[in-house]
Amino acid sequence: MKSTIIKNALLFLFMTAGHFLFAQIDKKATKETKILYQNLKLISKKHILFGHQHALEYGHGWKNEPNRSDVKSVTGSHPAVVGIDFSDFSGRSEDVIEKTKETLRKNVISTYERGGITTVSWHFNNPVSENGFYWKDSVSSPAMALIKPGGSHHKKYKEILKTIADFAHSVKAKDGTLAPMIFRPYHEFDGDWFWWGKKYTSREDFIAVWEFTVSYLRDTLGVHNFIYAFSPDVRFNSETEYLERYPGDNFVDMFGMDDYADFGRDGKYNLEAGVKRLKIISDLAIKKEKLAAFTETGLESIPNEKWWTEILLKTLKSENLELAYVLVWRNDSTNPTHYFAPFPGQVSAPDFIQFYEDPYTLFEKDLKNIYSSQFKI
C-alpha cells in the first residue's frame, strides 16, 4: 500500500510540474491529452476500462436517443471508452460528411464532458477504387502504394486527412478544451479483408503511409489531441511477428490487437493463444513505456451466458497484463443477432453485471477527473 501511495504521489508531482513519466509521440499534445495518456498508464497497472463501439449512436433496436447506451441500460453506467468511426469522412457526399461530423462532434464532446474517453477506428473507404473498405477481388485497388508520398493519389489522401484534422480541431467542450481521442487507423492490417491488408500492401508502403499520416496530422495540420494506436489482428505469435510492420517508437503511442478468433467466434476458444498475444503487447508497452489495450474483441450474440466473467475477465486478470482498456464491437440497431454487448433481457446480462461490479473493471461512473492530475482510482 505504501509503495502505491508513493508511486501515485511521484506521478502527481511529475504531471503537475509539466513533466511526464511516459512520453507521447506528440510533444505538443494538449495538456488533457498528455494527462489522459498518463492516467491510462496508471489504470493499466491495477484495472482495465471497458469500452463499446458505437455505444451512444445506436444499440439493439434503437438509434439516436440522447444519453442512451445498451451498457447503461444494463448497468446504470455508460462504458468508460466509447468507440466511433471516421468511415463516412470520405467517399461520401459533402452533405453526408458534414452530417456525420456533426453527429460525432456532439458524441465526442458529450463523452468528454461526462468524463469518458473516445477511441476512433477508421474503416477507410478505398480512395482509389472507391468501393468501400473491404477488399473485393477484381474491383479493389491496392491503394496504399498510391496514397503514400509520391503516389498518384497522395494529394487526395492529404485532403482526406485535412477532413480528419478539421474534425479534431472542432471537438471543443464548453470550457474551450479539446477532447482527446485515441486514433486507431489501418487496424487489422495483417489480415486480407481490408484493402490496406498485408496481402495487398508491402511492408515498406504500409510504414510509409503510417509515418506520413501521423506526421501530417501532427506536424503540418496541428492535431494535438490524438493518441495513436497500432492494432493488427491475430496473425502473430511472437514479438518479432507483431512488430513486422511497426513504424517505430516515434509514430505509435499504444500497442493493441483485435482478437475475436480466440474468444469464441464460431464456437471456438483458444484462450491460451489469446493470453499469449495479449502478453506480447502488454510486455511491449512496459518495455517501451507506452500504452497497451485490447482494442477489439467480443462474441457475437453472446450465447455463452458466462462469457463476461468466465472467459473475458479471467483472461484479462491473467499473467499480470497491463492493458488500459478492452473494447467489444457494436450492437446493430436493426440486425437482431449482431450485437456484442448485452441489453436488458439478453442471456448474458446477469453475468455482465457481475463483470461490471468487479473492482478490476472500470466504467464511466468510476472515472473521476480522468483529464486531471487529480485523478485517483
TrEMBL record:
Family matches, as PANTHER family: GH26 DOMAIN-CONTAINING PROTEIN-RELATED, MANNAN ENDO-1,4-BETA-MANNOSIDASE E-RELATED
Gene3D superfamilies: Glycosidases
Protein name, per record: Mannan endo-1,4-beta-mannosidase
Annotated binding of substrate, by residue: 123, 193, 260
GO cellular component entries: extracellular region
Residues covered by the GH26 domain: 31-365
Keyword terms, alphabetized: Carbohydrate metabolism, Glycosidase, Hydrolase, Secreted, Signal
Enzyme Commission code: 3.2.1.78
GO biological processes: substituted mannan metabolic process
Site (Plays an important role in maintaining the position of the catalytic nucleophile): 187
Signal peptide: 1-23
Substrates-to-products reaction catalysed: Random hydrolysis of (1->4)-beta-D-mannosidic linkages in mannans, galactomannans and glucomannans
Origin: domain of life: Bacteria
Catalytic-site annotation from UniProt: 188, 296
Molecular function terms from GO: mannan endo-1,4-beta-mannosidase activity
Family in the record: Belongs to the glycosyl hydrolase 26 family.
Main location: secreted
Pfam families from the UniProt entry: Glyco_hydro_26
NAD is among the record's keywords: no
The organism of origin for this protein: Flavobacterium resistens
